[in-house]
Amino acid sequence: MKIEVGSVINELRIKQNLTREELAKDICETNALSDYERSITSPTIDELALFADKLKVDMPYFYQK
């Protein structure tokens, strides 16, 4: 089973009423976040840790779906 980390990021971002620009700020470029959410590319482990912090989840949350 392939885990789509990007779809989890997208789901959390929308639930928290954040724009891509707001979530990407100080982490990555907005277009990179868009690529992550569409599973075109994957975030680095460092970026994932920053997303987890900003989205108020533990990193394992991204892999539970």
Automatic annotation (TrEMBL):
Which InterPro entries does the protein's record reference? Cro/C1-type_HTH, Lambda_DNA-bd_dom_sf, TPR-like_helical_dom_sf
Domain of life from the UniProt record = Bacteria
* Coiled-coil ranges from the UniProt annotation: none
Task: Please state what the protein is called.
Answer: Helix-turn-helix transcriptional regulator
HTH cro/C1-type domain segment(s): 9-62
Q: What is the lineage of its organism?
A: Bacteria, Bacillati, Bacillota, Bacilli, Bacillales
- Molecular function as annotated in GO: DNA binding
**Which species is this UniProt entry from?**
Peribacillus simplex
Show the PROSITE patterns listed in the entry: HTH_CROC1
